[in-house]
Specification:
This protein is of the alpha/beta class. The strands form two sheets. Strands 3, 4, 5, 6, 7, 8, 9 and 10 form an eight-stranded parallel sheet that branches. Strands 1-2 form a two-stranded antiparallel ribbon.
Length: about 400
Amino acid sequence: MNKRVITKLLALFVIAAFLLPGCSSAKAPASDASGEQASSQGTDLTESEEPSSSEDTKDTSAPEDTTEESTEATTEEPSSETTEETTEVTTEATSEETTSETTEETTVETTKETTVETTEAPELVHPEPKPLDPDSDYLEQLESLRSHIIANADYYNSLDNNPKESWCFKRMDDHSQSYSYEYFDISEYNGVYVNKNVSDDDKVIYLTFDCGYPSDKTATILDILAEHNAKASFFVTKMYLEECSDYAIRMKEEGHMVCNHTVTHSDLVPMDVEQICSEIFDVAEYFYNKTGYTLDPYFRTPKGTYTKKLMTILTDAGYKTVFWSIAYNDYSDEQPEPGYVTNHFATYHHNGAIALMHNDSSSNVAELDAVLTLLENEGYRFGLLNELN
């Protein structure tokens, strides 16, 4: 058979298969002018006619089921998982961001609170000690005072300890009281350099001798004072007492005052609180053990140095700090020429003066009698420092 004929027969066979009953719904619509009507009829058939056989049902339902499964597989399940994962990640990220922000805010607030607490230093209160009790054990009270001051070192260290200068004053040749160059009011820190409460009816001068170093000239000074029935106040160091305790006993027996001038005659300002206490209390304890007397509660700082810190410690240790309004160079090896000391008192004496002299000065020994005679003739008496309380 001719190949062309065979081909045409196979084509007709295929066409015949598509024209069998039950496949009318799949018939392609006519074209041209009937296209719109065919489209409408096809729609009516799909919506109203039921399939005539189970085969038609399989054919028409299978694609729908496949479409639903495909949709669930490709959209619903991945979408759900993706959404959950995305939500979890988003939630975790949001939680981490929130926690981070909260932590940062808390850290900032904590830092601010800590900074405020750190900058607000606690207020230090003046720890005033109890005064000495004459009926109690003297040495025990000294030790208690020492311990009290050392235990409160933080308070004393908070006070001004900047010495702008040593004690300085201006002499007045009209016999008015000497002017002071004090850089703070020493009277507010239990300090004194002159008796400002004197009257014209009571002319008084306070004679004071610094006994920093041992000297046998002390005996002559005591002799001259006794001749004039004049009283004086002696500021002694432990160095002096170690060799001249007999003179100190005589001072007390003859009605003079013996006061504190440190252990080593050193500047106290650079020292720490414990060292200052040693300079104050060691000499007091030594004097009591050596003589049986207690030091009178007056203190003179070596070199006349002073600060608010130092004077507060001295006050709490039970002392008044005493400076001076009459003084001259009697402490160096080059002593004043003869007549200088007497002339100095004649020029600068004034009522209520505190006169500073040194026990080892040959000029003082040579002219003390003349000075006392001069002042007595001017109507002065010689008072003790307890009048300044």
